[in-house]
Amino acid sequence: MSIPNNLRYSKEHEWVKVEDGKVIVGITEFAQSELGDIVFVDLPETDEIIAPNESFGSVESVKTVSELYAPVGGKIVAVNEELEDAPELVNESPYENGWMIEIKADNLTELDALLTAEQYEAFIKGDE
């Protein structure tokens, strides 16, 4: 299972990548494998303001519906509209084409509360 070292992770199984001062968010390979085949992704509109740990949407699979949580607070500046017609991108490419939202964070120090790749791996193995 892939857990890229250049990302940070939440205990709700979102990954975070900081790029040009913006925070890109998706769900981890572990999360998508646990969910199974993803059939629908419900994402917010751009320009919405979200708080840290606030639900910003959901992912529906053949097994269940799972809420998505913002790892940082801020303004949503981009949404992956490809997921509307191709939700399977989350299964096929969770760290690349399956990204979900981009946030202009209010406070990048909120990222300090997230897990490193090593900590996330221990978390999903139940070592934490």
Tell me briefly what this model is.
The chain is of the alpha+beta class. It has helices at residues 29-35, 82-85, 89-92, 117-124, and strands spanning 8-9, 14-19, 22-27, 38-42, 49-50, 55-61, 65-69, 74-79, 101-105.
Can you walk through the features of this model?
The protein has 128 residues and is an alpha+beta fold. The chain has helices at 29-35, 82-85, 89-92, 117-124; strands at residues 8-9, 14-19, 22-27, 38-42, 49-50, 55-61, 65-69, 74-79, 101-105. The protein has a six-stranded antiparallel beta sheet with strand order 1-2-3-9-8-5. A hairpin with a 4-residue loop joins β1 (8-9) and β2. The radius of gyration is 13 Å and the shape is globular. The two termini are 18 Å apart.
- DSSP helical segment count: 4
Topology as H/E string?
Answer: EEEHEEEEEHHEH
Q: Which class best fits the helix and strand makeup?
A: alpha+beta
How far apart lie the N and C ends? Answer: 18 Å
Instruction: Give the integer mean of the pLDDT values.
Output: 94
Please report the total strand number as a whole number.
9
Shape field: globular
Q: Strand fraction band? A: 25-35%
Rg, rounded, reads 13 Å
Helix content: 10-25%
Strand order of the largest sheet: 1-2-3-9-8-5
Low-confidence stretches: none
Major sheet: 6 strands, antiparallel
Please outline the helices and strands.
Layout: E1 8-9, E2 14-19, E3 22-27, H1 29-35, E4 38-42, E5 49-50, E6 55-61, E7 65-69, E8 74-79, H2 82-85, H3 89-92, E9 101-105, H4 117-124
Antiparallel strand pairs: 1-2, 2-3, 3-9, 4-6, 5-8, 6-7, 8-9
Give short descriptive properties of this protein.
9 strands; about 35% strand; single chain; about 130 residues
